[in-house]
Amino acid sequence: MVGVLGRFPVLSRSVAAVVSGLLIFGSFPPRPFWFLAPIGIVVLTLTVRGAARLRGGFGYGFLAGLGFFVPLLPWTGIYVGPVPWLALSTVCSLYIGLFGLLARLLFSLPGWPVLVALTWTATEWLRSSFPFGGFPWGRLAFGQADGWYLSLAMVGGAPLIGFAVALTATAAAALLVYLWTHVTVAPTDDPSSAERGRATTRVGIIAAAVTLVVIPITGAILRTALPGPEQGDRTITVAAIQGSVPRLGLDFNAQRRAVLDNHVRRTEELARAVAGGKTRKPDVVIWPENSSDIDPLRNADAAAEITEASEQIGAPILVGAVLVNGDRTTTNSVIVWNGAAGPGERHDKKIIQPFGEYLPMRSFFRLFSEYADRAGYFVPGHGDGTVHADPFERPASSRYGGGVDIGVATCYEVAFDRAFRDSMHAGAQLLTVPTNNATFGDSEMTYQQLAMSRVRAVEHGRALVVAATSGVSAIITADGTVQQQTPEFVPAALVAELPLRSDTTLATRFGARSELLSVILSAAAVVVGVIRRRNARDKYANDQAAMDEPVG
Predict the structure, then answer these.
(1) In sequence order, what are the beta bridge partners of 318?
(2) Rounded CA gap, 140 and 138, in Å?
(3) Tens digit of pLDDT for each residue in 183-220?
(4) What is the pTM of this model?
(5) Which residue, 52, 27, 31, 54, is CA-closest to 41?
(6) Cα–Cα distance between 345 and 335 in angstroms, integer?
(7) Are strands 464-468 and 430-435 parallel, antiparallel or unpaired?
(8) Taking the CA of residue 17 as centre, how many other CA atoms within 13 Å lie in the half-sphere pointing to its CB?
(9) Active-site position among 92, 124, 349, 459
(10) Which long-range contacts (CB under 8 A, 24 or more apart) does 367-373 make?
(11) Can you point out the beta strands (E) in 373-453?
């Protein structure tokens, strides 16, 4: 086997790169194999380290990216064909290629396992930011909701989880390199040099082994510091309504009235269950994104239906609605509907999805796909991402206190670190992710997004409610546990008594600073690596020139 690998090194490394990407993909939901991610990064690190040149590092990284993103993102092309799916996968793979190039440059520096792990975090930040606002889907952290690393989110959010997974992997790769070097390096005639080499190897082995053991164990220990499912300042009863849709696909909202009717009907069924004593009465009801694609601020019938549902359940409803603006653009909004009092505060989705909710460079991209003009004309909203809801019935002596401030990240927004930051700073006591997954059919997308919500719950120390049109809706406690969840494609209602919390985690307080630090350190390491590489090249050229000079 070794002989075959030696005869075809580029082919063997290319295969290893693709396998590394597939291993990382295997760590993502709905599979619970979170431990495959560090194994995949180990394989990728060793593969890139064996590249002869920087461009080889880029190429192997790019192949790993394809092995990861192509199977991760097919839901993006379910109803629009393979071109958008493969194009997006290719663009995302370029960032893994960049990681491979930079990692190959950094292997010559002391402490390269740390530097390479930082570079992984930095390239994830770059992919999450550029172009068109970035695409964070597929960050290492979002495959770790069932793993030992999840609790690290309370300290440094998704970036720290990604760094910890990558550092575990690079430490393991370094350990393998040190052991292989110790076994295979030929003895030298210089005893002092040999002893120095052995001492360096011992130090490297110890450092790598300690890192490999300490990081995942730290994550497991930190889990005991997460808030308990019932720990909080006070409690509130919340209901999530999953009305389901007439059909899946991009045309699900062709029967917009049916979608609204489904959510009204399921809310009224819940009201009857409350009246019959079969379940607790909710203080707040949350409907999903697109539960009313008929603008209730313009359409009296839609407003009347929502008002009736709110009055029957006896609680404000957070309604996911598409609002038509005066210039004919649209806004993806969550409105607090207070029964007969009508609409109250609202969250207008701030991070809108390119090539879905809007199309950048529309005239250019319509040349490549007939589906281009099906992209919406949504515009981003503003505000702090928080809405206030006041329960209708509160006894004066109630332990529940007043209303509740709810942080909202609508669907696509939950993938972005910044989505909940403003709402947390505005005092959000509870988080929610209203989402519409009907446009992605029976795919893994909904489970991938659910994992993101679990990471956000731990990151900010808040209970979180996912309300989805067609599933999966879920109640998530502040320790990332899914307390309840619905099956897909059936009408359902979840009711839970959840704690409201006011204290904040380290991740909430420090925000993007830890990720910014990783970018700065990575950039500094790359500069040092470039300088060392240039100096080594100049020295080699000078040595060659000296050898070529005639003697005498």
Answers:
(1) 286, 336
(2) 6
(3) 665 555 555 554 555 555 667 678 888 888 889 899 98
(4) 0.91
(5) 27
(6) 6
(7) parallel
(8) 27
(9) 349
(10) 368/83, 369/80, 369/81, 369/83, 369/84, 371/80, 371/81, 371/84
(11) 386-389, 404-408, 430-435
Residue 233 is encoded by which pair of tokens? 């300042």
User: Token pair of 140, please?
Assistant: 């290492």
How far apart CA 498 and CA 485 sit, in angstroms, is 15
Over residues 110-137, the mean pLDDT reads: 95
92 is catalytic: no
Least confident of 142-156, 180-194, 242-256, 262-276: 180-194
Lowest mean pLDDT among 116-120, 162-166, 200-204: 200-204
CA distances from 57 to 94, 174, 306, 335, 465 (A): 12, 17, 56, 49, 42
Dihedral through CA 40, CA 45, CA 46, CA 48, nearest 10? 120
DSSP assignment of 54-113? HHHHHHHHHHHHHHHHHHH-GGGGTTT-HHHHHHHHHHHHHHHHHHHHHHHHHTTSTTHH
539 part of the active site: no
Q: Which of 148, 208, 146 is nearest to 176 (CA)?
A: 208
Residue 366 CA neighbour count, 13 Å, CB half: 9
Q: Tell me: cis bond preceding 30? Omega within 30 of 0 counts.
A: yes
Distance CA 413, CA 221 (A): 30
Residues in the chain: 552
461 torsion bin: left (phi>0), alpha (psi -120 to 50), beta (else):
left
Given the residues 124, 411, 413, 488, the one annotated as active site: 411
Active site residue 289: yes
284-286 and 317-324 as β-strands: parallel, antiparallel, unpaired? parallel
Contact status, residue 72 vs residue 118, Cβ threshold 8 Å: no
Residue located via tokens 């996968």: 89
Catalytic-labelled residue, pool 124, 289, 305, 459: 289
Structural tokens at position 208: 């790598």
d(CA 385, CA 347): 6
One-letter amino acid at 124 equals: E
Comparing CA positions, the residue from 96, 103, 30 lying closest to residue 67 is 96
